[in-house]
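Input (structure):
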């Protein structure tokens, strides 16, 4: 309901890989990093030099935001995942938030209107967190293509593998086409590996190199092995997504019975309006 974990845990393949990795915890994980990057690249139709591994997706989002907005601002929707923006703010970074549509969707016209000469980075999350809403495919792509002519665009796809057809909604095709778009992914959500902190970005090779230049140098070996074992595992994802759909149905039924408005979500969370909080805000 809040931190959007997958309540059903890692797949059997991931658990087996974790067990094998524990015995090798005394080793640095350089070969395993290369292997996972290749696995992600192959699955997304790009070369390995397009892939960057990070400590969850948050490390990449936070450090890239700080590095790229030192003399400007980050542009993002008013209601979206913003932990990286808060991290940047603690380092003196600035953000500009564009208003949402009346139905709480990402307003790409408002994002365009908020674009100024001081914007150094643009960010959207799809499906959006916390609303769970999926952006219109054509509108998202048109906005990414135009915006990426001016600044790098991050499309955070933390929940993309919870969709019925992730490939149809992913912006990776824009990376393959050479646009300055960065697709952020993570093993913390669909794959149930939140505690292991493995994430990735897919970007043009020169942009990927720029991201690597601000990140730490290595990651945990058991987590890398688990991630490689479960990435795009169709049986696991299908079972996990069915279970999440059943859970959402229970929550939605309770909200409907209580007369509380909510948004339909394809992900591991439901956005609902409970009215004023205890402080009356």
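Output (sequence):
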């Amino acid at each position: 309901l809040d931190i959007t974990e997958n309540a059903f845990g890692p797949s059997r393949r991931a658990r087996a890989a974790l067990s094998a990795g524990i015995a090798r915890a005394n080793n640095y994980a350089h070969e395993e990093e290369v292997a996972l990057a290749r696995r992600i690249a192959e699955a997304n139709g790009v070369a390995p030099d397009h892939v960057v591994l990070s400590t969850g997706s948050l490390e990449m989002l936070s450090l890239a935001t700080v590095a790229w907005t030192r003399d400007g601002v980050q542009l993002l929707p008013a209601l979206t995942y913003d932990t990286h923006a808060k991290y940047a703010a603690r380092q003196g970074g600035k953000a500009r938030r564009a208003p949402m549509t009346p139905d709480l969707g990402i307003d790409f016209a408002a994002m365009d209107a908020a674009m100024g000469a001081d914007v150094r980075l643009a960010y959207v999350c799809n499906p959006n967190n916390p609303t769970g809403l999926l952006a219109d495919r054509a509108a998202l792509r048109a906005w990414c293509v135009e915006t990426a002519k001016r600044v790098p665009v991050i499309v955070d796809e933390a929940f993309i593998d919870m969709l019925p057809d992730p490939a149809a909604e992913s912006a990776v095709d824009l990376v393959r086409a050479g646009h300055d778009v960065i697709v952020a992914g993570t093993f913390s959500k669909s794959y149930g590996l939140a505690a292991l902190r493995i994430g990735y970005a897919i970007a043009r090779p020169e942009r990927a190199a720029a991201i690597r230049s601000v990140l730490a140098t290595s990651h945990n070996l058991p987590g890398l092995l688990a991630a490689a074992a479960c990435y795009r595992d169709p049986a696991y994802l299908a079972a996990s997504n069915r279970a999440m759909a059943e859970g959402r149905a229970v929550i939605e039924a309770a909200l409907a019975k209580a007369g509380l408005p909510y948004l339909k979500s394809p992900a591991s969370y439901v956005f609902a309006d409970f009215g004023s909080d205890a402080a009356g805000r």
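Notes: The two ends are 21 Å apart (CA to CA). The mean pLDDT is 95.
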